[in-house]
Amino acid sequence: MAKLYKFLVFALMLVATTTLYAQNYTVSGVVTNAQTGEKLIGANVILVGTSLGAASDQNGKYSISAPAGNYTLRVSYIGYATQEVQVNLNNNAKVNVDLTVTEFTLSLNVIADRAKERETPVAFSNVTKKDMELMLGSQDIPMVLNTTPSVYATMQGGGAGDARINVRGFNQRNVAIMINGVPVNDMENGWVYWSNWDGVGDATSSIQVQRGLSAVNLATPSIGGTINIITDPTAQKFGVKYKQEFGNDAFLKSTLSFNSGLVNKKFAINGTIVRKTGDGTISKAWTDSWAYYFGATYNINSKNRIELYALGAPQRHGQNLYKQNIAAYSQSFASGLPDYNKAAFSKFHQTKAGRLYNQNWQNVNPSYSGKQWWNGATHNRYNSNFINERENYFHKPIINFNWYSQFSNKVSLYTTMYWSGGKGGGSGTYGNVYRRDANGKLGDKSYKFYYGPSPWSWDWNQTIAMNSGAAGNYYVDKRKIAKVDGQSIGILRNSVNQQWTIGAISKAFINFSENFKMSFGIDWRKAEIEHFREVRDLLGGKFYNYTGNDFDTTPAQQRKGLGDKIAYYNTNTVDWLGFYGQGEYTKDKWTVYATYGWSTIKYSYLNHFKKDPKTGKALFTQSGNINGYQLKGGVSYRATGNVDLYANIGLVHKVPILDKVIDDRGSGALSKNPANEKFTSYEFGLNLRSTDGRITAKFNYYYTRWNDRSFTKFVRNADGSDGLLSLFGVNQKNSGLEFESAWQPNRYFRLDAAASIGSWNLTNDPNGVYTDYASGVPVQKKYNLYLKGIKVGDAPQTQLALAGSILPVYGMTIQAVYRYYSNYYANWDPLSRSNPNDRGQSWKIPNYGLVDFNFSYDLPLNFKSIGIQIFAHVYNVFDKLYVSDAVDNSRYNAYTSDGKNHKADDAEVFMGIPRIFNLGVRVSL
Question: Does residue 400 register a pLDDT over 70?
Fold first, then answer.
């Protein structure tokens, strides 16, 4: 101990002596984007008149050592206004620099309507590239947003890209997802398929979550919020990065990125390519995917610039789409719940896979060599030893061409034109496929599989034997079926979606004065989507007999082989046109803005299988133009340099989705008077910052009323057939408090916190129509639903997130994240809400908390310009067993002996993902 003490004293004396002799001091700080607060990497920082300088690192930090004296510190970065600061370097100095984006180079931030700190009067959170690299790992993009207020994202069944996200209690159908300013929600129903963007996280520069009606002026489905994803901009300097990741269950992911740097001050390109494979954490939820990103910029002159972006993710993955009774995953967990009747164990058996159980696959004799059809060609199945009932495959590229033009100091025009294609689908069964109950008993001549305990399983081998067998009578679940030689009774099908969308967004900005600005814009989109089912796998037979096409008039035409269309085949179109005008007034401490937008939409439907009795041609239905509008505004008041307040209010009449206007799953009937959905929202908030910049805090309250909501829900019947429930006139009210804060007392520690408390309730008793497709011919039944007073489910109404980061040495971050969820109600099942005497709340999911661990370290190695970073992630560190998703009063996984009473034994659930890890290395040049 004494030797150590002497050594430390000697070292301190040596350092002090050296410092006094050199008389050098250090100026250091952080370079950030003044609009977003994001750290700027690679900013050029110099002391004017000297050869001394530095470039900001991945944290935006710089440090320059220089002799004592007076200096001019100059900070420059491409696309930003250069800033100079006077520095008196008689002691170590800390100078943080906020660079302002020049008006011409606002580019994507303008197109994407990104909110600005202290100006835009909405609640928003920014997730920087550094945050994503530290926390996301190889999860789906929504998972990194779980540490922001009122945001709940889960992996659902655990398939790659099958994540979902809720904001303020609204699912992603009602959250606008934008990539580089272009909306990517489904044009027909508003849903977002994250598998289409698998790997895009590696090319993402930042994500901004604007909660509520947001500052977006396009007519987007943003009642819950808007998620703006901005991809990597072209860089000023040449660079190459390679990342290799490893994870549990044979997970491998390789990412290569490059930047050309700015060539001749005119041209730059960048790109990313990703390859990902893995067996999947959940049984047979494997992944096999690619992703790519390409960006290019050309500066025509000082007033005009064009950009090109292209990205996509061709992928295949095994899915887990069927929730189960809790006992199927863990009878021990179920027995610990106070409202689970243990008598249900006789009906619901615990599976060997436990929490990893997936009902959507089963083993098959590897000698079966039948081909599968998808994407227009035959293929061997993914694995010869098993067949996935549910497999998703899709590729949805998107290409943007942007033009930014500054006509004068007062007038500028920003335009983006885009194209997005899409081809792929998802598999499932069709016809009569054998199943066995949990005891292994086959559904045959004298027995139906659902007579016995659950969960049931597919029997591919028995089905193949039937399909390849001789002509005669066969029995599936007590159903007598006659077949001829070569005929398949049960098969695998693909539900295919082929689509294209073209669009243009153009925004003109006019500065009438230093204080008053206006913006006008147009939003035009056109989409065509083909929906059909096709034969994927004949499971031992040579053809499937389908008689539902009115234009197939002979037995030969009704015999369908691989790739032939069955079940349905229709083409839908969406024509969209919108305009907006926005004014903004800023003076001294005040900013006020108002936006008015108008949109008109027209739908059409062409049923290629159904003959119009009047014309003898394919049935065609077209709606007229349906108009909607939005009116919203807000005010921001900067009370002091550290305190600002804001408020906003909005009214939106949103055009109904296609399903509410045209019955595109059956008759093609046109709704006579489709009602617009009506949103009313207001919000006010308070933002605080400490004078030393070490503490920031945001508080806000929101209130949203949603009337005349309409939506459809695809349901699976007990026998495996599909159904569709359309609900009309649902009203709900969502309100709550949100809090977000960051505290960094020194360079070694940072604490981030986010919390939200919601009150989300349904407020009326609507009606609906259920369409059953079990017989092959749509059968409709009207429903009255009794929902008034029921809690909105599907997301926790109380949430807390804490992230503690330790930075013990330069370049190292060690982070622990804790998330806690409570007041979480299962998603209500509409078909169980038809009893006027049943007003009980949906089952309340047990509260749970999770801990994640993140680590990154920039190795202090000096290999010329080569940088090496190692990183690791452990999610659900303590392997917590919890329910992440649930449906109340399941129609096929409820224990009904004691009645359906909104209890744990009546729910069907997905258990949360167990402990998983991801680690790797990132090399940059």
Answer: yes
What is residue 221's predicted lDDT score, i.e. its pLDDT? Answer: 61
Whether residue 800 has pLDDT greater than 80: yes
- How confident is the model at residue 427, as a pLDDT? 98
Chain-centroid distance of CA 410 in Å reads 37
Per-residue pLDDT band for 22 (boundaries 50, 70, 90) equals very low
| CB under 8 A, 24+ apart: contacts of 176-179 | 176/214, 176/216, 176/218, 176/220, 176/221, 176/222, 176/225, 176/226, 176/227, 177/226, 177/227, 177/229, 178/112, 178/216, 178/220, 178/226, 178/227, 178/228, 178/229, 179/229, 179/231, 179/311, 179/398
Residues 6+ apart with CB under 8 A from 652: 213, 223, 628, 629, 630, 631, 632, 678, 679, 681
Alpha-carbon distance 757 to 244, whole Å?
39
Contact 883, 911 (CB under 8 A): yes
d(CA 120, CA 647): 10
Domain ranges of the chain: 23-102, 108-231, 366-389+407-564, 690-925
* Percentage of residues of the chain with pLDDT beyond 70: 92
What digits encode the pLDDT tens for the residues 824-838? 999 998 888 889 999
The pLDDT of residue 440 is above 50 = yes
Q: Under a CB-based contact definition with an 8 Å cutoff, are residues 761 and 705 in contact? A: no
Task: Report the distance separating Cα 572 and Cα 621, nearest Å.
Answer: 10
pTM metric for this prediction: 0.88
Please report where in the chains the tokens 């009150």 appear, as a residue: 759
Residues 6 or more apart whose Cβ sits within 8 Å of residue 52: 46, 64, 65, 66
pLDDT of residue 20: 38
Length of the chain: 925
Quick one: which H or E segment has residue 6?
Answer: helix 2-22
Q: Pairing mode, if any, of strands 24-33 and 97-99? A: parallel
Considering only CA atoms, which of 221, 210, 207, 218 is closest in space to residue 120?
A: 210
Give the fold, CATH level 3, of 108-231.
Answer: Ferric Hydroxamate Uptake Protein; Chain A, domain 1 (2.170.130)
Which pLDDT score is estimated for 669? 85
Residue 741 has pLDDT above 80, yes or no: yes
Q: Which CATH superfamily is domain 23-102 in?
A: Carboxypeptidase-like, regulatory domain (2.60.40.1120)
On the question of pLDDT at 139 being above 60, the answer is yes
Q: Residue 141: is it exposed, middle or buried by C-beta count within 10 angstroms (0-12/13-18/19+)?
A: buried
pLDDT in tens, 342-396: 999 999 999 999 999 999 999 999 999 999 999 999 999 999 999 999 999 999 9
- Cis status, amide bond into 453, omega within 30 of 0: no
| Structure tokens given for 526 | 């056109």
Please give the radius of gyration of the chain, using alpha carbons only, rounded to the nearest integer: 30
- pLDDT the model gives residue 770: 81
Locate 89 and state its tokens.
């370097």
H or E stretch including 279?
none
Residue 106's pLDDT is 44
747 exposed, middle or buried (CB, 10 Å; 0-12, 13-18, 19+)? exposed
Which amino acid is residue 507, in one-letter code? K
d(CA 784, CA 793): 20
Of the candidates 484, 429, 503, which has an alpha carbon nearest to the alpha carbon of residue 719? 429
- pLDDT of amino acid 763: 96
* Strands (E) located in 827-915: 844-845, 848-858, 867-875, 883-887, 908-911
Q: What pairing do the DSSP bridges indicate for beta strands 487-488 and 543-545?
A: parallel
CA distance 357 to 911: 9
* pLDDT tier for residue 110 given thresholds of 50, 70 and 90: low
Assess whether pLDDT exceeds 80 at residue 680: yes
